[in-house]
Every structure is written in C-alpha cells, then in structure tokens.
C-alpha cells in the first residue's frame, strides 16, 4: 500500500492540473468568443484626407466598462446588476462642445475631472454610452479605423521610445520618410541641433538602455513624429513635469509648429498654451463647467479663475519665457 502512496498523490496532483487546464481552456474559448468593445461598421466610410476636420461632442455620456463587461460569461450577471441599478458611475455626463476646424481648444480642470477621457473618445478608444462624437461631420462610429488612426495624432505626457535608433523611432510615424524629411521634422520639433551633435546622429540608439533622453527631448522627439505623421487632429497631453527653462521654451516653439493649421485638443497645464487657445473648456465632475477665452473666464471669476491662481499662475511651471513675445 505504501508503494501506491506516491503514484496516488501524483494522480491527485494531475487531477488538479487537469482541472486548471480545463478552466484555462474555457477562459480561452470565452475570450475567443468576445466581441471587441468597439467595432468597425461594414459600411464605414473614410474621412476626407485633405482638410482639417472639426470635432463635435453632442450630449456625450460615458463610463468605463467594468471587468465584468469584457467577459462574455458574466454578461447575464451584468444584466442582473443593471436591473438592480448597480452600474459604474458616468465619468462624462452630457458633454457638448464644438472645436472648429484648425483651432486650438484647451481642456483644463482638476485631476480626475474627465479631460483624458474626452481625448480617449476623440481617438475612438471607446464609444460613448449615449450621445455622439463627430469628426468632420461624421459620427466616429461611421468612420473606418484606419482613417481615424491616420487623422488623429496623439502626444502623451510620457512619449514612448523603442530601444532602437532615433531614426527607427521616427520612421515608425512615417515608414517612407526620406532623410531630408526626417531632418526637416527634427528641425521643426527643435531637436535637430541635439541629434546633429551626437556622434552617431540619427543612428544613435535611444531608450532605457541607450542614450537616455531628458523629458523635454523625448517630448520634442514625439513632436517630430507628429510632424512626420501629419495628422489633421492633434490630441496633446501637456507634460506636468517641470522642464528646465531652455527645454520648456524649445518645446513651446516646437508645439507652435506642430499645431499650426490643425484641429487641436490640448490638456493644458501651461499658461502660454491656455492664453493661445481659441477656446478654453473647464472640465469638472465629468461636465463642461465653463467655456471661453482666458480673459473672458478671468472676468467671470469662477472655477477657471480659481484654477488659474492655484495652477497656472505658478511661476515654477511657467518660468520659461520666450525670447520674443511672438514666439508663443
Ligand atoms: P488628470 O488631470 O489627473 O489626468 P483627468 O481630468 O484627465 O485627470 P480622467 O483621467 O479622464 O481625468 O479620469 C476621469 C475619471 O475616470 C477618474 O475618476 C478616473 O479614475 C476614471 N478613469 C480613468 N481611466 C479609467 C479606466 N481606464 N477605467 C476606469 N476608470 C477610469
């Protein structure tokens, strides 16, 4: 009997393994069955390539999907939860605004207000739960994924660099770019002087294990990518990190080139950007609380004026002064 003990415990171990495998398989089938949260319509159309489109939010409400919702097996469970009125709260509630083609709209507001969520909907990372997001007059849900990807260029706070050469990092934005086009984009993004000064120039390996770019340099490289991609809509999350004055002024100059004649939605942290904006939307609690230009909102003395004093008037954030006023 003693000799049987080993094999028996092994068998019971196998049963455990078998159960795990079966459960894993059923998870795999469940995942294969899953429909993506956003889908391209079979009759989806392409966005006109030649003009900068406008952006319109009409009565948009949105809440992030829960883990339950992305699992098909739990749809019944979710339905029951909905029937009991247990849903996640709306992150955006009845948001409406219009960004005219070729203009810059700054989104400002406290942390967690919903600013990034608005930008996620413009790139169609998610669909609204109600209401409509329109680009160039089209409901985003009627456009092909490719034309949205082509039209919208995103620069986030922390630009991701591949562990590869600067050249490859740039070609990722436009694989067919010529040497001259790469240099032109780097000049526009105020990063060419730095690249030219490196012994290997564009062939310098960057990323965590290569030449480590500073925050300001990474941002300018991201702007160079944007210039190569030539999107007609720019979604930009301005960095909150304090850059040194020189880097800051260079980033501002680069942005001026990058945003020219594009439709821009900027999560703004800098006074220079909000002063430049054609329109400022003050987002709070998932809604648009105030809208107007800097002067109009300051005169109103509401939430914007409060934010201005606590956030934007901070000389440490806005210390970078341009050499000339017209550079901003
Ligand atoms: P910040 O200025 O801090 O970046 P924000 O105004 O951009 O804030 P959002 O990031 O849009 O705010 O977040 C709005 C709300 O949505 C927050 O309550 C946040 O916790 C929630 N949220 C953001 N992303 C997700 C997500 N992927 N899943 C679930 N909830 C999320």
UniProtKB/TrEMBL annotation:
Q: Where is the ABC transporter domain?
A: 55-310
The molecular function GO annotations come to: ABC-type oligopeptide transporter activity; ATP binding; ATP hydrolysis activity
Tell me where the signal peptide lies: none
Key word S-adenosyl-L-methionine present in the record?
A: no
Keywords from UniProt, A to Z, are: ATP-binding, Cell inner membrane, Cell membrane, Membrane, Nucleotide-binding, Transmembrane, Transmembrane helix, Transport
Q: Looking at the keywords, is Chaperone present?
A: no
Compartments, record wording: Cell inner membrane
Domain of life, per lineage: Bacteria
Q: How does it sit in the membrane?
A: Multi-pass membrane protein
List the GO cellular component terms. Answer: plasma membrane
Q: Which family does it belong to?
A: Belongs to the ABC transporter superfamily. Siderophore-Fe(3+) uptake transporter (SIUT) (TC 3.A.1.21) family.
How is this protein named in the record? PCZA363.2
Origin organism of this chain?
Amycolatopsis orientalis
Cite the source lineage.
Answer: Bacteria, Bacillati, Actinomycetota, Actinomycetes, Pseudonocardiales
């Amino acid at each position: 009997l003693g000799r049987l003990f080993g094999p028996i415990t092994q068998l019971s171990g196998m049963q455990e393994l078998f159960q795990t495998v079966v459960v894993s398989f059923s998870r795999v089938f469940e995942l294969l069955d899953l429909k993506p949260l956003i889908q391209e319509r079979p009759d989806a159309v392409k966005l006109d390539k030649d003009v900068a489109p406008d952006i319109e939010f009409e009565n948009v409400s949105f809440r992030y999907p829960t883990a339950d919702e992305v699992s098909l097996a739990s749809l019944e469970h979710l339905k029951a939860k909905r029937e009991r009125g247990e849903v996640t709260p709306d992150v955006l509630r009845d948001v409406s605004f219009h960004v005219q083609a070729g203009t810059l709209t700054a989104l400002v507001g406290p942390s967690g207000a919903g600013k990034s969520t608005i930008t996620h909907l413009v790139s169609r990372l998610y669909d609204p739960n109600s209401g409509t997001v329109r680009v160039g007059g089209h409901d985003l849900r009627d456009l092909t994924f490719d034309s949205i990807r082509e039209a919208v260029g995103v620069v986030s706070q922390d630009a991701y660099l591949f562990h590869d050469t600067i050249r490859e990092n740039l070609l990722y934005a436009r694989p067919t770019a010529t040497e001259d086009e790469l240099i032109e984009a780097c000049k526009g993004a105020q990063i060419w002087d730095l690249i030219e000064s490196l012994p290997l120039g564009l062939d310098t390996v960057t990323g965590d294990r290569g030449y480590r770019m500073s925050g300001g340099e990474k941002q300018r490289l991201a702007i160079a990518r944007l210039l190569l991609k030539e999107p007609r809509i720019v979604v930009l999350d301005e960095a909150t990190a304090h850059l040194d004055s020189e880097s800051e002024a260079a980033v501002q100059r680069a942005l001026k080139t990058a945003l020219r004649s594009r439709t821009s939605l900027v999560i703004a942290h800098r006074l220079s950007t909000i002063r430049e904006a054609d329109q400022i939307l003050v987002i709070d609690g998932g809604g648009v609380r105030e809208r107007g230009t800097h002067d109009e909102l300051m005169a109103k003395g509401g939430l914007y004026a409060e934010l201005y004093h606590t956030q934007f008037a901070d000389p440490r954030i806005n210390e970078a002064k341009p050499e000339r006023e017209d550079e901003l």
